[in-house]
Sequence to fold (310 residues):
Amino acid sequence: MRRCRQSESADQGDPQAKPFPEEEHPVAKLWIGVDITTGLSALLLTLLWRRQVQVRYVSGTVAFHMAAAFAGENKTDARDALVIAQTIRMRPDIPVLEPTDRLIAELTVLTGYRADLVGQRVATLFRLQELLTGISPALERAVDLNRKGPMMVLACWQIASVDDLIAEHLDQHPLAPIVTSLPGMGTLLTAELLVHTAGMTEYPTAAKLAAHAGLAPISRDSGTTSGNHRGPRRFHRKLRHILWMAAFTALRECPTSRAYYEKKRAEGKPHRQAMLALARRRVDVLWALVRDGKTFTRPGTPTTPASIPA
Fold:
């Protein structure tokens, strides 16, 4: 993490220069650049936000590519701090971190805890199967290790209790009835979507949300070559997984989604591309619902306005 101060009188070319006091240079603008947003940086970010200091986030990928623009190949904390400071000075597109809403923060903790429980349950199941198979394959078949088995009841009960807490907190969010009304968006997927999109507040358009989720193609035009597109390589994989799973579930529940999927298959697209196209289309629908404050209804049924506080 590195503090970067921009001032008309400050020498920005000297990375070792100490920042001037605020009282001597009242026009100075203070930026704080960080490359970590969780864990150890939580206390620092909270203190900075309380002092109303602007914090910008330089991801590890951005810092890695920006480091190639500076001399030297050594990897030290001082050089990393220099790269972060110069990055937020030269690139105005570096995102600004804002304090997280309390409800979103609680949903973040609950969904993360649930993911840990699911991972522990799966790991325990595989270890038991391996041990029992090593003793006797017949013993492994005799022991009931499925979801309703006695050895898995406790783990499933813990996950179910966390699901109840997630549903209780989700009911307090004003966008919950809108998002859950979209076919395929259950309680868990809605909570995770709100967590990873900061309550649908970080994207000015549906295209921005689709690009962040990796649902928008990337242009590879050069010279006389145009219309050349490929799939993105850098995107929010968890967000893409949420939208993919919602679209996959909607195939069984929503005739409109099924018809759109079949249309893409009839155009010659394979299953994966048809699913991505459906997920991209559903992003536009979800964005329109959030924008208009209405819940999703089946075709031919009037939409229902949702109560969203101003």
